[in-house]
């Protein structure tokens, strides 16, 4: 009841091609996350699915029907906009309830659903306010609330949590996950947050410059990135890329090691390097190294560690987790 | 809007008929066409007819030939057109800048008494031209003496002259009266436009050090340009249709010596007649058609050239 | 049921008199007929009446402007031929001229009132300055000079702002003395005289001499300014039309007198403009033509003439039966009808049928001449040229 | 909004400028009103003096109010003006929305067609209009006036409103579409409330010529029962009338109701602004 | 040249008090980060510092001068707005350059600085576009660029990186850090991102419901949170709070253990618990546990670990990192 197929969707603004032929199959009830660098076309793709943007060519098939020309209102979707797009003249409550009211839902049913959503999003104290009187995070929550009260089959979220604080973000993320499970709705979600992407998604779609780089489950992407781009994009801090020949590996062009797969030792190891900068995050420590052989390296250690800039350390890659890429930047498997 | 931007060029699939467009257009179209357009066409049609031997007959463009060929008609017409252009120029240079300035002042945040100022400054616009004409004739009258008395207060009495009675100043004086009356229109439109600029953009400008005048010129003005476009075209259309005020202030003959005659007064005099002059519907319709073409040219220029180039910003 | 007749008129000033005197008098005698007097502002009257007649929604009784405006309506068959209307015999052909076809065959309006031009003066001022009523042109200027020298009063209350004031109260007022009334007017229509002839230029030359005697800023002085200047006692002489009488009587706090336009030389025949101004006609589309005719016959009766002329001093009946005027000023005006030769305004008949319109041009040029922006000769030439451009007198 | 952003000097200058123009705007009106309460002689002798006990006079008002049934006239004017404004706003806004929101073939031409109405004075069509009304049996009804004024107001309303509707954020309308709102609901529930300042402006602009119009009441509805105020009071403003007391009183009286209407609409404007200004 | 003092700043909207007496001292050149739950007043405080919001009472002292009533333009600040607030009619380039132009900066200097900033923010391809033609992340970068080209003494950033992808975020964060060092400017920064807060800040200010909960360096807050609120707010996933009496500790009301300070073992440990849910983030694994004794527990393990729901495991807190709180929720030191 919420399957989606995109068939070579293309979209241009004037001569500028933003989507370069997107093919995608989303099964009913799946949770799909779009990630990709800023400006790669995530929002545009989401808007095309919603029917807000006319695609230049290609087809949007929802539940097996070609809906490329169906108006958004008839596609049975809910969407959270990156710019929130709240109705400035309505209160929070009416912002959330308008769609239901329009659909002729009974008053007390609206009341109930809005009550539930606003409880879930801690919005109760603000129900009577207008958007102008809310903080950024509160507005974002209203936008989410507006989408979820309608309980459609297909949800589109454009960076819905970017303005929330960590605690609320975790909480809302869990709520969305629960919603997904309980409604069995299909969800398509854009985020920049790695944790969100890794924890929520059934399937992550990595976009780059209007094209799909890889589609896969979170751990697939983490463990077996198809190419340098995906390898670099998934995981934070970014994977270290080292010119293969510098380290004597001639079967690849580039090798990649994630920061968490480097171990440091003051005594011995594969690559000698100088500590450049140390970041203490509490639970982790990020150490930036400069090595003659491999250039800049980032290592991520669990817990707290005292390293001083200019200290010389040895970094050893975990051989089981070394990625190798060919001249075309494709992973060698 | 964006949703249909490129539909025509590439996607060959036909979109379903959008009935709502018809529904939105229909009531306005019906009332407007039936009560306004058809009667007007009926009238403009008369420009191709004239009375020949006591019978109305189709004469083609003969009426236009008379209007432009007959020296007297042509003289009256060109005189009116030139006066009208002056009239328009004065509105553009006086009324609109002052209106914009007033709107800008009114929109200064946190100002007290804005509602009062706004109402007071809009009051002249609310008045009927009968009132405006009457009051200003009195004020400028050398007999009643309000204007000379006030000039005397600031020691400028020698500047006073019976302006409305002198061919040179009369047109300027009438234009200024009209400016006084209609300044509320640009003021209100620009005020509404200024208010729709988002607060945060202005705040960003404040932080950027762009304040006061610079803020107006560099931020607000570009954002209200479409509204300025509207007031310009409304002024243009309004001025080329104007006649009421001149009728009441200077009479139907737009004295002295036709020096305040504009197209509107010429048209009304011709079409409806005046005193012993009988209304000449054919020549009136001819003048109306020419005026219509002039205004149409202006409006088309605006719609097809200026408005298309002008960027609009969605807030 | 009662039949209601609607009277279209521009005389909104007369509303009260109609409601209080005329209508009750008629209705008392004609039960079953009700009259509604429905006036329009004078400036809008012609246009709105034409529109209503064209669309067929005009009232039953139409108040007629003199000459061509109404003739046009008759020619369009919007007015009924009233030649045979009972009561029409009460009017002389001259009285009917303004509402009769060019060939003199049909009359389509019942003449109602005429107005007479002259000068109204402030008697108190004349007495104070020891001026006697001027009879000739020279005495007139002598009087003006004297008033001017004294300085208390503005000699002449007239402005050029409204244009028509200069033409009607100036040119048409004093003109007949120079072009010899009907004689000159008919000659002009026949093409035997031209506006550039001395008879027609002379009045302009006289007008040009008025300038120094007018008030400060007379160029912007409106008609009502002039009235006020005079009635408030600030001006001594008012070039007038007789219609001012009622208003002046109610407003002026001093004694007033009137004198006819001074003749060029002692012993010259005097001429006055006694101009038919108001008539009433029957709308051809009226559904109550019979009742309306009854009403029109009554308007033609001496009874109406008496009520009307006495309620509206200054609007003189055109009825052949003389009306005794109770107002002294009005009586003064009407008394000139005998000794002076009456004529109608020179531009009204036939000569203002084309474009440019001679009447309108006369307004403009009269103002120009007084303002000094055109010399009398130039003004006359312009007028004649305009007339020549379309008027071909029947040879 | 912040005090820190408004210096007293700047505020002072702004007030100075605004007061100066207010004076210019109000002075003639003030002059009319004070003189309407004076006797005739002092109107002329001391036009600038406010009425004193010795010069005070209500004769003008007595004359005016004694003439005709002004209560009915006012009622007619209000009905005609308000109904026309409502129709103009509704029909005009609907058409403006269609023209500004949707791209369809002939959009521009239709826009131009709707703008013709502001290019030719409707008065020229009087005869045909009157004939139509006679045929429809609407002469001497307020309906006739309302029809004409609605037709007359629509072009300007479309012109102004479509410009303002273009500034309503697409995202917002799209959010509505996603929410399942029909195009009608988007128009009535989202766009209309958001262009309220412009609607109020249009209402005021539409109101002025209607209230002040003399011509169509004269032609289409001159009967005593359908007379409007402007028509009712015009008898004091004839060519030969010098009854300044009555004229000034009539003029003063005519200012008041339209001022009231204006205040009503401009309050709408303020409400529109405070409720819709920020996203 | 960029010191800031806030003296008992209060701010109400109507009867609703948003800031409840904020005292803060920021030294010249310091990098201060405000964190706190959505709606706690961070943006309001920032706007009060900028002079965009009138404070109800209190004083804003900049460089030793009371500037409470100085207009924003004269405070020598630059600000990045949460909603970007770009000038819609200007190109990206002009958006960035306008402030400088207004200040009368020479053309080529403007050119240079805009060039530098847009290079830093990867905005070069968009210099000629207008905001409406940019993606969300691109707009945000323009807003940052607009602030930094002006190089004032005091920067105010309101969640400047929330719409950026991970890579760009790291990059921009480093740029801001570099900018801070090179300009020696004082920076006040609002963020929801823990990593940003921990890595950038000299000093973190934790706000809650309009009042300051704690001020301290990142590691101070992590290691010695002053109270339950700060302990819960700093660190993600959130610290585990356990009713002290349940675990037999009677000297405290609550004890807190961060997820990263729990070790799991299938064989033995302090608290027996059942696995509820497992999240695989690649570099870490988050394990949600349900224990009879302590209620819900979250554990964070470095690297990948296979646990299945319903498995019984034993969690052992790292005693060196156990936090203890009294009945007033204050930390017991
Ligand atoms: N104009 C206003 N009228 C009434 N309340 C307001 C207004 N503006 C903000 N508020 C309230 O003030 C509180 C603080 O808002 P503020 O924007 O400072 O929060 P914030 O800490 O920046 O939140 P976020 O992280 O969500 O952006 C919020 O609860 C908000 O609802
Ligand atoms: N109206 C427009 N005209 C021209 N280009 C546009 C327009 N709207 C978007 N773009 C461009 O299209 C590209 C894709 O935009 P989109 O909003 O889909 O990016 P995104 O992936 O959502 O980025 P972000 O993560 O920053 O939100 C961007 O490079 C943007 O500059
Ligand atoms: Mg986006
Ligand atoms: Mg905020």
Automatic annotation (TrEMBL), chains A, E:
Subcellular location per the Swiss-Prot or TrEMBL entry: Cell inner membrane
Residue stretches making up the ABC transporter domain: 4-234
UniProt xrefs under InterPro entries: AAA+_ATPase, ABC_transporter-like_ATP-bd, ABC_transporter-like_CS, ABC_transpr_MalK-like, ABC_transpr_MalK/UgpC-like, Mo/tungstate-bd_C_term_dom, NA-bd_OB-fold, P-loop_NTPase
Domain of life per record: Bacteria
GO molecular function annotation: ABC-type maltose transporter activity; ATP binding; ATP hydrolysis activity
Keyword field contains Ion transport: no
Protein name (database record): ABC transporter ATP-binding protein
Annotated source species: Rhizobium sophorae
TrEMBL record, chain B:
Origin superkingdom: Bacteria
Any matching Pfam family: BPD_transp_1
Spans traversing the lipid bilayer: 21-41, 85-108, 120-140, 223-247, 284-305
Segments forming domain ABC transmembrane type-1: 81-304
Annotated localization: Cell membrane
Biological process annotations from GO: transmembrane transport
Family to which the UniProt record says this protein belongs: Belongs to the binding-protein-dependent transport system permease family.
PANTHER family recorded: ABC TRANSPORTER PERMEASE PROTEIN, INNER MEMBRANE ABC TRANSPORTER PERMEASE PROTEIN YCJO
Identification of the protein by name: Sugar ABC transporter permease
Organism: Rhizobium sophorae
Automatic annotation (TrEMBL), chain D:
UniProt xrefs under InterPro entries: MetI-like, MetI-like_sf
Annotated ranges, domain ABC transmembrane type-1: 74-265
A Pfam family hit: BPD_transp_1
Keywords recorded for this protein, A-Z: Cell membrane, Membrane, Transmembrane, Transmembrane helix, Transport
Membrane topology listed for this record: Multi-pass membrane protein
Localization of this protein: Cell membrane
Domain of life: Bacteria
Family: Belongs to the binding-protein-dependent transport system permease family.
Protein name per Swiss-Prot or TrEMBL: Carbohydrate ABC transporter permease
Species of origin: Rhizobium sophorae
